Amino acid sequence: MPLATLDSSMTSRLPSYSQSLFDAKSQKGLTFEAIAQHLGREEVAVAALFYGQAQASEADVDKLSGLLGVPREAIAAQMTGFPDRGRAGPMPPVEPLIYRLYEIVQNYGYAYKAVFNEKFGDGIMSAICFSTKVEKETAEDGSTWAVITLRGKWLPFSRF
Amino acid sequence: MPLATLDSSMTSRLPSYSQSLFDAKSQKGLTFEAIAQHLGREEVAVAALFYGQAQASEADVDKLSGLLGVPREAIAAQMTGFPDRGRAGPMPPVEPLIYRLYEIVQNYGYAYKAVFNEKFGDGIMSAICFSTKVEKETAEDGSTWAVITLRGKWLPFSRF
Amino acid sequence: MPLATLDSSMTSRLPSYSQSLFDAKSQKGLTFEAIAQHLGREEVAVAALFYGQAQASEADVDKLSGLLGVPREAIAAQMTGFPDRGRAGPMPPVEPLIYRLYEIVQNYGYAYKAVFNEKFGDGIMSAICFSTKVEKETAEDGSTWAVITLRGKWLPFSRF
Amino acid sequence: MPLATLDSSMTSRLPSYSQSLFDAKSQKGLTFEAIAQHLGREEVAVAALFYGQAQASEADVDKLSGLLGVPREAIAAQMTGFPDRGRAGPMPPVEPLIYRLYEIVQNYGYAYKAVFNEKFGDGIMSAICFSTKVEKETAEDGSTWAVITLRGKWLPFSRF
Amino acid sequence: MPLATLDSSMTSRLPSYSQSLFDAKSQKGLTFEAIAQHLGREEVAVAALFYGQAQASEADVDKLSGLLGVPREAIAAQMTGFPDRGRAGPMPPVEPLIYRLYEIVQNYGYAYKAVFNEKFGDGIMSAICFSTKVEKETAEDGSTWAVITLRGKWLPFSRF
Amino acid sequence: MPLATLDSSMTSRLPSYSQSLFDAKSQKGLTFEAIAQHLGREEVAVAALFYGQAQASEADVDKLSGLLGVPREAIAAQMTGFPDRGRAGPMPPVEPLIYRLYEIVQNYGYAYKAVFNEKFGDGIMSAICFSTKVEKETAEDGSTWAVITLRGKWLPFSRF
Amino acid sequence: MPLATLDSSMTSRLPSYSQSLFDAKSQKGLTFEAIAQHLGREEVAVAALFYGQAQASEADVDKLSGLLGVPREAIAAQMTGFPDRGRAGPMPPVEPLIYRLYEIVQNYGYAYKAVFNEKFGDGIMSAICFSTKVEKETAEDGSTWAVITLRGKWLPFSRF
Amino acid sequence: MPLATLDSSMTSRLPSYSQSLFDAKSQKGLTFEAIAQHLGREEVAVAALFYGQAQASEADVDKLSGLLGVPREAIAAQMTGFPDRGRAGPMPPVEPLIYRLYEIVQNYGYAYKAVFNEKFGDGIMSAICFSTKVEKETAEDGSTWAVITLRGKWLPFSRF
Amino acid sequence: MPLATLDSSMTSRLPSYSQSLFDAKSQKGLTFEAIAQHLGREEVAVAALFYGQAQASEADVDKLSGLLGVPREAIAAQMTGFPDRGRAGPMPPVEPLIYRLYEIVQNYGYAYKAVFNEKFGDGIMSAICFSTKVEKETAEDGSTWAVITLRGKWLPFSRF
Amino acid sequence: MPLATLDSSMTSRLPSYSQSLFDAKSQKGLTFEAIAQHLGREEVAVAALFYGQAQASEADVDKLSGLLGVPREAIAAQMTGFPDRGRAGPMPPVEPLIYRLYEIVQNYGYAYKAVFNEKFGDGIMSAICFSTKVEKETAEDGSTWAVITLRGKWLPFSRF
């Protein structure tokens, strides 16, 4: 299976270390799975780090630097800084894979809201106190299924 | 906990049976959880039925009609027909709960894509051969967490 | 000073009880300040209730019903239900007063982010665990100043 | 706590001195709080200066130049000139922290208007004769809260 | 010269008294000039009143009611209330006359800013502490010219 | 008072001579007022020339070249050519000063139309056969006011 | 050949007389060509009258009323009033016939500008002092061609 | 009369030969009229060639190369290739001259459609089997008029 | 298999006969396939007739009227008139089935263009001189495939 | 017939190998048809590869490298990686050829949906398990027709 690379037409929207990380990852032949295991983090979180959408801890930087052979000082300052999130791609998404996720929100948004409200009350599922993961399942008929889990803290609206 | 109702300002975007179903549900004091159990379907799917975003089987109609006391003929034709999906609300969502889901796609879209591609190859997670559910968890510190599971068939791009 | 009324061209975007509440408020000649005092809530919260942007407790409904002379059953179900927020007006706002608030976000958004990040770390100020109030000040030179306070819980991004 | 830095993908929208100031700030290890104290200005105002969204006085330039070690002539002309405001980021904001502020305007805009109108009459809160500050509070339960204060002169609509 | 009337396709965007006022004006055969003289206000201000874009004083309502033969109580509450401004038409304008004004802002916006900044400093011309009028001039060659005057208080940006 | 300069983030939208003219103007320490006097044109027209929004005559180029010390041949061809108007900034404007002008069109557009139509008939005020100027007034109470005059030829719709 | 009728889904965007005129035209079986001949005006102008995009003279109303059998008083006031132009349909057009005209502007806009500028100087072709007509031609090979002529007064930009 | 030149801020949207052609045209002092005569094509078509909106024949390239002194091989491949049309400028147009054409489509679109339908049936005027020209007329009163002719093949909708 | 019905939330965008036709079709229990066979037209064309996106011949109306039991005079005038196309739904489509077609244009648009240009030259495939059909195929492995054929006349760009 | 080339104004949206492939193709004088035959793939698929909208197999890269004389290592990594689809051009398309395909979706989208639903049930035609081809036909009257075939797997909505 080939590795995910960074499309050159995306780099102007991303922090400069994104390109360095993707290049080093390709050269070392490492999957996000392998890097995630090394960092003790979720794969999606690690990919988000590569796209500049998440903050790295000092330990993350140490491990990434060691594993990928990227000089610590080339990435530490920006990666442990404060990400400017939300700019990796256009919305609505034009990429078919990402569009499917958008379509789920479009089609089931109010259904989620109704179910959430009845189960939890008036509030939201946080996208900040939040984690997510991706899993692969094989059904009995041999077909392959993708499973995304979204887990967020429930925040009730304050009464004031 | 109060029940989800249908905001009157939404009805013009939805099929006419939506209002009837929500009204009957309120009158009977039924949650989506109770209705879902009665129908043997997921809560989100049942809420989607109420918003006109999913197709009902003949058996669903029978059970809904019985449980809610809505005349079968008032809802059967349209509910077992072909939903005109995607119109329950605006995109980007203005409702905070639904916006959080949109934000997850915005922030993690390319991270999901990278992880999916490395795990599954070039393709998409289907939003059609797809199911979803909502669960409630209580953490050790007593805090409440919402968990959404998205499960879709993996579809590789055809080679042609 | 006249009372705030509901522009008839807005009603189609709001729940049906909005009009009833505004009408009763006008007839009783009550300010939001008076109603807020009666309910023990903030003025902005009470106005948000009137626009269908916040949830009422059972006690709120009791007090509102009594104070305004609106039959409890005409408003209780929807007001204690789950608001469909975010639809009171267009964004960007066309109303000059509301536009000024939007402009503050536009002009100072990244400045707030930089200051927040340095003071609090990587996270957001919640708009859900949140309260707000409006105050009036008179400066020494006799000029009048408006003060808005926004107070939200700080939510650090989860590490996962 | 790390310092706020300037995402390289933002620089094309900002005046050229922004990058120099952020770089010097990082090298000197200075927070906006420290710089604000040195300048006798609010933190948000100083961050706005760095993003090119506010005008510097001659004294500001002197102090900034001294504190940060940036040659006066490299920044004086543009910083004491007339900012071209409003271009630091897209609207609606895609950054989660900034989006929350936008959401407050979206959800409570008409509530603010109604309360303002009843308290002050027909007019607006100026975003020009205006100041703002950010504070950090710790609640009794140890949780952290962010407080933004917006203070603007009240401008009644002229009668003509 | 015919009188300005209200296009029926606009009424849903305007307060309900707009239609009554325009109808009465037509029936009485009154121009905005005549009404403005009667009210002692500018023509543009009076037309703005008719479109629900400006606030009427009690005296304005008395005079309008008398002049137009509209019952005072049919218009007083809403007209002396707080206008929900900015919704008379779409932006960018599709009406050619209004588009020309928009085009002036588009073409000369930065030129105005540069000249204002040099003449007045860092600030804005208020659109709230503001008046405007329209005049008709005949040039020596007999051609007709329209003159719009915009007069707004200069508001310097606060230093904070 | 500082001089207006050209924000570097704007140059890609403007003709190449804009930067040269602004630079020379700064170096010579000249205001638009001084240059306008030298050219015998209105300040706004001269600023529009600098932003590439108006056409220069041969005499304008001679005088500008002499006054600013910019070689004639560096600017003559493009400045006496045909401007590609309307691209100096985004619409709706994000700059607060320019937004206020836009807001005037948004709020008073239909009021202007009604008054114009009654005074002039069915037509438009030209934005081409057009001039504009900016003036500064000091009111009796010492406050400063900005006055913009827009003067355009009245063009009646042709009957065909 | 059938007659042009008014799609019922358009009527809410048009003045109320539009429907009456189209209905009467259908009942009388009259083409725009016939009506235009009767009024001594161009076909496009007459169709524009029907869509509320042009002003009728008193004589037009007399002739229309007579020819179509519509009571004069039902249409006179609005038709001789001031049209609120530009709202017959969305832009970009979704109707294929109208889209082709839009596409011509999109593809050849700058080519027209370059040719106009060289032939006429710096200015515009007026869309107000303007007439247009549609003609039908049959080529030698029997194919049918449509010819639109646009004729507008040339307006040079004023020097000020 | 000056020649049309290429605004440098447009070049990134156009094929690379556009700049070369405009530069050579300026150096030779040739109008589009002169070039059109040399090529035996319409002026608008030639200007469209310069903007990369039309395809050149081999003979066009020969003649252009000779007349303008541009090496054949620098322009032949791209100019005789397949234009990527529609990108010369934004829509809606911000350039006043081009906007007027857009406004004609906006105001008269449905009028054209109604007249076309009655004269030709259900179909469109092709923008592909299409030619256009610009002419200059002087009216009796000495005023100057621009005339655009659009001639397109009539294409009836297929019945299937 | 249920029949396609008309979602009530769509009717305001469609001509009034759409609802009548869909209702009659449901009552008679007729598929588009059966109706198409009766009319001797393609299924897609017939469905387009029902949505008001295509013109009916007199014979179509006769046959439809007879088959569906809808009075001829209730539908003849509008159905044989000139459709106002392109308004059945929003673009980009929110309905998943229709979005997939849009996505094909988005993903393969330039690939189609390149292949068309090399095979046919500089031109377009007409969407007017055009037909389309839908077929169902069963693959060897029992899976079901949908096949859409688009057939349009090739129109080369005119040389002028 | 000339070959399709890559417009230089598009390259920033495409992966870097696109330009290399198009250049080599031009130099070798190869059509997409010839390349497709060499690769044993459809022409549209090969053009999509060139635009970075499809994934290449190792064998594709070998053959392309050999046929076009492009070093294998310059293109292998990115071409066998995971395309970032959907960014070749704007939507709605401005290119006339691509717009016609968009218009077909706009005009016939709901007709396709109705026919698909009746023939296949509630689901979609996949754009992923999908192939497409372009053919050229000559009608009896000598006219040229383009035929596009879209073939996608039918995916029924899951019941959950």
From TrEMBL, chains A, B, C, D, E, F, G, H, I, J:
EC number, as in UniProt: 4.2.1.104
Molecular function terms, GO-annotated: cyanate hydratase activity; DNA binding
Keyword match Lyase: yes
Pfam families according to UniProt: Cyanate_lyase
Catalytic activity: cyanate + hydrogencarbonate + 3 H(+) = NH4(+) + 2 CO2
Keyword Cytoplasm: no
EC class (word): lyase
Active site: 100, 103, 126
Gene3D superfamilies xref list: Cyanate lyase, C-terminal domain, lambda repressor-like DNA-binding domains
Keywords: Lyase
Boundaries of every Cyanate lyase C-terminal domain copy: 87-160
Listed PANTHER family: CYANATE HYDRATASE
Known role: Catalyzes the reaction of cyanate with bicarbonate to produce ammonia and carbon dioxide.
Name this protein carries in UniProt: Cyanate hydratase
Organism name: Schizothecium vesticola
Name of the coding gene: cyn1
